[in-house]
Fold these 3 entries.
Entry 1:
Amino acid sequence: MMSRLGPSRWLVVVPMGLLAMATVYPLLFTANVATKTRREYILDRFSLASTLRWDNLSTAWNSVGMGRYFLNSVIVVACAVALLLLIGSMAAFALAQVRFRGSSALALVCLTALFIPFQVIMVPLARIMAEGGLVDTYPGLVLAYVAQFLPFTVFLLTSYYRAVPTELVDAARIDGNTLYGVYRRIMLPMGAPALLSVGILDALFCWNDVLIALLMMPSAGHRTLMVGITSLRGQYSADIPTFAAGVLIAGLPVLVTYLFLQRQIADGVTAGATKG
């Protein structure tokens, strides 16, 4: 039995192994460059570092204010994800379980918004934010992230909440619960896997963003970490190891998130997709 399944397994293992290597190699290459001296990198950029020089990490962290950029990203991402989950879960509950006129059309609008690239709304969004005095402010960037990623959040949570039996909602209403009571006592606890999954994905989207953050936070003191990395490339264009150290610092939170929460991400998305 094992011998007969061998060739078919190799057809899966080999492509997946190559894909894994293609994914891991850039990270290993960046980590290796980040521990080199400038001279070692110029002489041979692909060789292993002779000694691990962690001072490149401290230079990247201290010289260009990456600590401030890191704090900016943490504040913005935390606020944006909290708002996305709050608004998205309420909207998803209404679209999935509350019967009202126009709900199908509203769900279609949310789905259509997924296919609108940010570049289409970039100019009007920047003008609205500038007129409201929200440029170079935390609330401005948070609202921009909410506007960009809310359709995705609503779409996934709606597909999950549609799997909740309507009998539970009807029984809760008969027991005297308001719609808010049903949302708080039933939907939030039952939707915890999907909320965790979508929250992690939204956090990764916001953390890795460059375009929206560059548009909404142009001044140096308000930059997020990813925008700060781009400025590091311009300031240290001849010092590639320092730039690689900055890239490594910015990528570590994302890597740690995937390593420790990959099962929650997969379980939440799969549950919302297959039960809905």
Entry 2:
Amino acid sequence: MKDAFGTPQSLLILGGTSEIALATARRLIARRTRTVWLAGRPSPDLEKAAAHLRGLGAETHTVAFDALAPDSHETILGKVFAEGDIDMVLLAFGMLGDQALDERDPVAAVRVAQTNYTGAVSAGLVCARALQAQGHGSLVVLSSVAAERARRSNFIYGSAKAGLDAFTQGLGDALHGTGVHVMVVRPGFVRTSMTAGRPETPLATTPEAVATAIELGLRRRSETVWVPGALRLVMAALRHVPRPLFRRLPL
């Protein structure tokens, strides 16, 4: 169960090598979290992440999980929940893709969409049902500011995140009153290995800043978190820019 400040004792991360997720885990372990499950494709990086969290004092387990294998999600995640209550699920897997290449390769574009949207829908529904059955817990989903409006430079990734964002909001409404808290996190450009080499956008942030915002959102039981917070106002303005003008902006 969570403590009086909303800190979970147990945490399941879907996308166990995500830099944002691991920064969040470190922050929560420093508070009260004692058990962490890292779900992801088996790899040395996944084992390294688990060893790191164990060194911080958390009982950490790894579980083989593939976002692109939805037929396996119910069985794999069901086994995790069967081990005991999970106070927080952080859905953090995703792929940025390469817009220029993906436009020329529909199969690659579909892989971006399946990873960021359909895989997340499957895993999100499985975890939501399990959280509802235990009567408590938080489902935190990493969306993106890219979900707010399609841009020429990343509309394949952005469209998938837009679908995920809408799905998560609807899921939150469906679970309202059940004891399950659903929170959408919309970071802007985050400095990670996934974005290395790409030109930064204004208001760029870090995994640690996103982790801080997630923790604060948990305490407040927020439904939507922007990182940094100023992006809420920026996107509110950009959302209403006429399309001919928006098309010409250097975004």
Entry 3:
Amino acid sequence: MHNNLVILAGGASSRMKKEAVLDNLSPEEIAQANERSKGLIGVGGSGRPLLDYLLLNAKKAGYKNIYIIIGEQGELFKEFYGSQNVNNDFHGLNISFAVQYIPDGRVKPFGTADALFQAVEQFPELNSQQYSVCNSDNLYSAKALLALRETTSPNAFIAYDRDALEFPSERISRFAIAKLDKNNQLLDILEKPSTEVLNDYKDVEGKIRVSMNAFKFNGSTLYTHLKNCPVHPERDEKELPTVLLNSVNENPNTTIGIPFSEHVPDLTAKEDIADVKEYLKKYYPVLDWGA
């Protein structure tokens, strides 16, 4: 099993920064939502960031080396998780920082695939190892993160049961859905699915599966696809699902969807903050890092 987890935290957080009139947020929470990377918003006990809880679950799952991809203005991460660029000790986790630089001519980052490519260029040891990748603004369970460590498939992703996600149905309907064969090998990813095609995308359990950006990759075979990732024609970004599909097309039967049925708390917009705070209060009354 591999010990490396790469956390994507260099995005622009544009949806979180949109204006919203909410009576369940304090001025401080609104200010943090407007100014901080989403994973650093203080939603936990004593105002600790959501990222604390993700790191706790990563530790429980057995990860040792954490690479956090931050933006060019991401110095606040170092106030929470270590002032050095590499090898900070945070509750027994070894935390290093990669920086996602914005290319000339752009005003915002170039997407998740670009973020990971810049990270493996800065930490080339990952290109000869296996590693997991996830978002900083989702709280994946320790069980799901462990499943990524345990799988023997070269590449994998957590294939969440769409019906188990506790989001508004309109929001869920926009999630891209995965098409898996009878052995849960990835065949295709469909963005913006229409209701007419849903039956064609049900897996062997009759479930519609979606990705929440929790992946496991083989560094040596993924590198070329990361480097050569095309730009998405609509969103003008380089995205990890594109990399994954290009890898599958070249190497069929190397990417498994691991079925999971559970909710994944998410900080996308200001409206999510109160929900995540309640979730953490219920399921994580204390942050217990153990010995």
